[in-house]
Amino acid sequence: MDQTITSEDISFSSIRDASFLLRRKKISPVDLTRAALRRIDQVEPRIHAFVTVLAERALAAAKAAEREISRGKKRGPLHGIPVGIKDTHYTRGVKTTAGTAVLADFVPAFDATVVRRLNEAGAIIIGKTTLPEFSLSGFTPGTYNPWDLSRTPGGSSGGSAAALAAGMVLGATGGDTSGSIRGPATYCGVVGLKPTYGRVSRFGVTSLSWTLDHVGPMTRTVEDNAIMLRVLAGHDPSDSSSAEVKVPNYAALLKREIKELKVGIPKAPILDGYHKDVLDSFYESLKIFKRLGIRIKEVDLPSLDLADAAQRIIRLAEASSYHEKFLQNQAQEYGASDVRREVEAGSLITAVQYLRAQKVRETLLGEMKKTLTVVDAFLTPGKSEPAGETQKQAVNLSRIFNLFGLPSLAFPCGFSTSPPGLPLGLQIVARPFEEEIAYALGHAYQSVTDWHKRKPPI
Length: 458
What we know:
By secondary structure, the chain is of the alpha/beta class. It contains 14 helices and eleven strands.
């Protein structure tokens, strides 16, 4: 390793920069992997972001990557890059627990498609990250936010977000049914994308709600996210919901012209109840976008109350269907979370109620598509509050975009003042299969701000 490059430099490097150093042979995949494992040794006892750390397996993969790269066989920008995998994503020969005793001993015989694609790209899988039981919660019990160890990293992809923020990995996978990538990304000051429904395969991923579940990348920069999505995305015949849509080179499109793009924002009453620091940061960010040449326009949203109700009915009914076999045979193994109660409640939802919710979904999606004909994207705060704070009257602006399957990108935009020092974030929503628009807007914002470069005090 180049002696001018420190272990901390490596731990908090971007994927792009680390890939450049690997290509120039300034560092090696083994250097990167050892730095990640050292960082895990240092901070994991306080963060608890991992269910399983695969130290020996990761070092063996790093040595193999080093041999390939030394022979000029670099597979791409993720070759030799340490990543974490959410513990709902099947890993062949490695326990995949989904955070529950029900699956405590489950060892898959094959990899999830996203894991296979990361392996094929040469990424180094460091370990499996934590989550609430079966992903069914907005916080991750036992895992702590690197910015304030008394606070939650969010959920359900809380382990992935915490590992990234603490410098233990350079990228991670997450899952998002009701905001479970974007919430933790906001709370931990990292970047998370919920792609368009069907853009990334869900094959080999423990299900929560099959028409609302999304799998996506989590990183420290928007550019890294674009790099990672290109590897994860693409049609998968093993997933019946997978879309046959061409995958663009997202990183190459980051610097596309964004001047004069029209970005919609919620009308002010929708943000009633949002934390003052969140609103201040949001409106300061609007000024930055305006300086970048973006046109801001307040727009109407479909009925959020109806959307919330439809999303909840669909989620619970589908979760109940998935859990039926577990409830019949392993009901006593559910933990102290609300999962068993929730899925049992879902079994009481009738077919008529489920189908009515799906009809409401279709109607509201039509209204949202009309909104996206007058604007190119939609911008909201990432969360209504900093991590661990409570805003009981605030509207949830995450779940609606799971209902509609639209691509939604969360990224950092500042820090709270009361309480001090907690990350705040933005959410950019684009039209179906136009992730590159969200990426271009997010990248432009990050090119003139440094929130994503800040490191937690751990």
